[in-house]
Specification:
The chain is built from twelve helices and twelve strands. The strands form two sheets. Strands 2-1-3-4-5-11 form a six-stranded parallel beta sheet, with helices on both faces. Helix 3 runs parallel beside helix 4.
């Protein structure tokens, strides 16, 4: 064999070896050997209109909840969100409304929790189904535990304290706090707060908002039986009107203040029949959650940093009632 042939044979072996090694390397590494991107995967872009179900414990014809509804529906109009508002004062029936919304795959839930324990299974089921929930008005202390994104409303204890302080500043000595919804934790918190702020004698009276004639009769009986009661705090604007009527009918010395505004309360403040109103600006409780749920869906925004978003309290008296009253007339305060 010649030296030239031997060199060619060795060179061929070397080339073959290199080719084999290259093929082996490619087989071992393949596509995984390519550099990986460190950029996060793009989030899917939401499509279609957002549907939000607002489910409250408001009773039919309640002026307070009408304003909440107005706020939610206005937010829907402003933001292109489909808003469906329903309510039921019975906790069991309200829970069923939540279950129905979940079954219909609503895009977001806004729920008031006057009776948190009764609603807990339904709200937690919504969260497990991937439906974002925002609580409003009542149930602030249970909101995060049940999985809600945030709570929008006033702190009932703080609001009660402010009302009690105001009565104390006005020189009152004995306060009657009127609860109109049995089992409503927020109303109990208001009266407890009033006791703290008032630092005087406070007693509670249970009435039924669904029976206004009986409510007026009970308030009349309380101030007539105990003439030392010089202050009455109602927790609803409609009950306030009944309290004013009850006190006038027996010529009692008690004076009324209330939570929440309506046109009758505005007129009563102007006339001096109601000293002040604790306004929690419930229009915001309807409007803001719809806005927050849209931000959450479209941009993964969460508002509040783990704390509630407070809408009150704001005390309205003779000095501010003219300005605020114009918004009450249009249904936004």
């Amino acid at each position: 064999m010649s030296h030239r042939w031997e060199r060619a044979r060795r060179s061929g072996r070397a080339v073959a070896g290199l080719l084999a090694a290259g093929l082996l390397l490619a087989a071992c590494t393949g596509p995984a050997a390519e550099p990986k991107s460190t950029a996060p995967a793009a989030a899917p872009t939401p499509s279609g209109p957002l549907k939000v179900s607002v489910i409250t414990h408001g009773t039919a014809g309640d002026a307070f909840w009408n304003v909440v509804k107005n706020g939610a529906e206005q937010a829907g109009n402003d933001l292109g969100v489909q808003v469906e508002y329903t309510s039921d004062g019975d906790p069991g029936a309200q829970a069923k409304l939540i279950d129905n919304a979940v079954a219909q795959q609503t895009g977001g839930l806004v729920v008031s929790m006057a009776n948190p324990e009764a609603l807990r299974p339904s709200i937690e089921a919504a969260v497990r189904a991937g439906i974002p929930v925002i609580t409003i008005n009542s149930g602030e202390d249970k909101s995060a535990a049940y999985g809600a994104l945030t709570h929008v409303g006033q702190n009932e204890s703080i609001a009660g304290q402010e009302a009690g302080k105001k009565f104390k500043e006005l020189g009152k000595h004995k306060l009657l706090c009127v609860i109109h919804e049995a089992g409503n934790v927020g109303q109990a918190q208001r009266c407890d707060g009033a006791k703290t702020g008032f630092a005087g004698t406070v007693q509670t009276l249970q009435v039924d908002i669904s029976n206004p004639t009986d409510a007026e009769s009970r308030i009349r009986g309380a101030v007539q039986t105990d003439s030392s009661i010089d202050a009455v705090l109602t927790l609803n604007s409609q009950v306030a009107a009944r309290a004013v009527s009850a006190i006038k009918s027996v010529n009692a010395k008690a004076q009324v203040a209330t939570f929440d505004l309506n046109s009758d309360v505005v007129a009563a403040i102007k006339a001096g029949d109601v000293l002040f109103a604790v306004d929690q600006q419930q229009y915001e409780q309807g409007y803001l959650p719809v806005q927050f749920l849209k931000l959450y869906r479209d941009n993964a925004n969460v508002v509040g940093g783990g704390k509630p978003v407070l809408t009150g309290p704001d005390l309205v008296d003779k000095s501010t009632v003219d300005k605020v009253g114009q918004y009450v007339q249009r249904g936004t305060r």
